[in-house]
Amino acid sequence: MTSPNGASDRARPAAAGSMWDAQRQALGAFIRDQRRLARLSLRQLSALSHISNPYLSQVERGLHVPSVRVLQAIADALDLSAETLLEHAGLVREQAGPTSGAGPAADPAVERAVRADARLSQAQKEALIAVYRSYTDGVAADGPDAHDTADGVPPRTPEGVHR
């Protein structure tokens, strides 16, 4: 078997091989879960992505590491960012700090979760992330209690609950 970089699996230590096996399995499971969240059959995803049904099945079962082109096609069909799939494929490392444009208090995991939600359109994802960043940027800049009123009572949310 050949690894994504073209090296034989036999040339690598067993621990490295098991790492790639686990990564392939995790990527396949993630794609399958996202497909199911989008309520798509394997055949429907195949038609949307222009990737053969048998090959997609093998990717979902962790038998193949798809190319970047295939990951891009799958991401487009599932309305995900290609970066999300590349991270799950182990081809791009997660950023240790906040994502670009996000304030210091923003949690990259929250933004990844929003981007991975197949139920949201791209516009909805961007709007939700913008709102999230506006709250986290404000908290980071002013501190968590900066939005309290002068009388010491925190403002009420629309539901009438204190923040």
Automatic annotation (TrEMBL):
Give the superkingdom in one word. Answer: Bacteria
Instruction: Show the segment(s) annotated as Disordered.
Output: 140-163
Q: Pfam families attached here?
A: HTH_31
Instruction: Enumerate the GO terms in the molecular function aspect.
Output: DNA binding; DNA-binding transcription factor activity
User: Which InterPro entries did the record assign?
Assistant: Cro/C1-type_HTH (IPR001387), Lambda_DNA-bd_dom_sf (IPR010982), TransReg_Diox_bact_type (IPR050807)
Keywords of the record: DNA-binding
Q: Where is it found, in Gene Ontology cellular component terms?
A: cytosol
Q: Where in this chain does the record put each HTH cro/C1-type domain?
A: 31-85
Protein name listed in UniProt: Transcriptional regulator with XRE-family HTH domain
Species the sequence originates in: Actinomycetospora corticicola
* Lineage of the species this protein comes from: Bacteria, Bacillati, Actinomycetota, Actinomycetes, Pseudonocardiales
